[in-house]
Amino acid sequence: MLFSRHSPRGTLAASALGFAVVLLDVSVVNVALEALRLEFATDIAGLQWVVNAYTLAFAALLLTSGALGDRFGARRVFSWGFVLFTLASLACGIANELATLVVARLAQGVGAAMLVPNSLSMLQKAFQPGEERSRAVGWWGAVGGLSLAAGPVVGGLLVTHLGWRSIFLMNLPIGLMGLFLTLRFAAPDGEGHRRCLDWPGQVAAVIALASLTASLIEASSLGWSDIRVQAGLLLFIVALAGFIWMESRTKTPMLPLTLFRNPTFTISSVTGVVVNFAYYGLVFVLSLFFQIQQQLTPQQTGLAFLPMTIVLVAANIVAGRLMTRLGARRILVLGLGLAACGYLLMLLASIDGRYGMLIIPMLMAGSGIALTIPTMTNATMSSVDASRAGIASGVLNSARQIGGMLGVAVFGYLVRDTAAQAFRHGMYEAMVLSVALLFLGGLLCFVGMPKVIQEGIAASEKKLRPATLRKHGHST
Asked: For the Major facilitator superfamily (MFS) profile domain, which residue ranges apply (predicted)?
């Protein structure tokens, strides 16, 4: 039978392809911002919606999608995630109105949330615990990291030579290939766990995140005094309070609040928000800076990001070796401090306006962020029992996506005026905010991380299977 051959390597290929296409769409859109602005005659707020609609759905549904995979089968949910992601990409590619594109991006985010956690569940089933599974998860993370780093370059080439629609339409052959590999090689789902799903908590989380995102984005054009912006912020507060209240009382919460009693887990989650806030916000602002202020083509913009993207891959490799020698706390403080110094030097670039002034700051910021991501992931996994490693990594990844979404919203508000002087002033403010948050994050890690984490994670690694420790990868 065509769809009956189980193959661990084929499963790995399908899982890695699903993770790669999700991260590719995180970064590839940024180099098309100017093309989208001209195509739809929109402002910065419209561009923020294109970027953040994807991240919003992805962040809000990540935890529930993993639970759906546990209940109905990871292979089944992963396959439907590929179908939805591919169809949504087609809708993005043929969209003729901005609203249609934003809705399609939301659907893409839902598909992405279905893909990521269930890709790991399929790997867990396909490979035996130990070195074999660790190697598979390592390849999974490496493919995802490379796709994230390659996104600006690939996107720049496609937009320049084939137009902005091509960055979405390229997902069609990838999605079809991923779906074929899944149906061909992934083992059939067994009996699912009949766990209850926290739908009230999920609805409250979506309302809270959506209202906050909408308020931050629309404030750039409507102003903070507008009744719609204020109503959105009030709705966010009410929904957030309701979410916390429900999660503290339900027997099967999507977000177990008891996890935050662990200082290492709490600090790692806060660090995840800060790091992605600074990184996603920076990529958004620099994309506008290169294309609108420096008049670079999409291809040149993609190449302009190379110093940061290359060092992201290299520093990820170095981080794993440094953790066992220096300890998680030292690496976190070093990484956040290095990133903060990079953003500090970017203040000069925002005044000078030359690309050459950005190269060293981009190298420093990229290195610091790349050192921080795998370290906080391992610190999180080392701080919880093996039985809660899955939910802990899911919460951390959700926190990171929320941070990225907020970064784009806040940075976009600061550079909402594209006039040269006003834009550079907003870029300056964005860098100042990033420096402050990164330094505060480093201080929080230094003061709050327990000593056992500072001494290294080697002892804690013995409590967890290697594959579990590395679950959810190290990519930004």
From this structure: 11-453
